[in-house]
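Journal club side-thread
Mid-discussion, someone asked how the predicted structure for our own chain would compare to the paper's figures. Pasting it here so we can look after the session.
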Amino acid sequence: MANLTLFKALLLIGFEKVAPRTLKRGDVTITVTFIPNVRWIVRLPHITYELSTQKEVLHKLVHEGIISRKELEYLASIGLDIAKEEIVQSEEITTGSLIDVRRAFITQVIMPRLEILLRTNGMKCPVCGKRFRSTMEFYNHLNTTEVRAEEHKKILEGIYEEVTGIKP
């Protein structure tokens, strides 16, 4: 579709035009004003947003759960470029969030258990006897050592299984 605007696109996913420059779906009302600049007024049951670009409006509608992922993908498929950008942005956020979750899991759950193991063994690796000054150094050793690698990896796998109940 040539020149697909957000206003037109919202009509295609169930918003109804209820007045000039005003759309409504359920409890959500979107009004576009042009005085003095373009402003999108998005009224939700609990809050009203005043936004200045179509991209901001789409992001807010997705973030608030007004537009589903399926609807967003449909809008992207019919040529709404800002919908494509929103999909890419949400995937980057999700990927970043998963990396943060993994990092937090290692820091908050795995490292304390490794520290206990290291201290009970006199700050030495229970597999090869190498001495360590920190838990992080020990963690890196378990992940990267090539000497008796399987035995070293089994230490971490045992901790993961103990914590999650899932055998890696």
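Post-session note: The radius of gyration is 26 Å.
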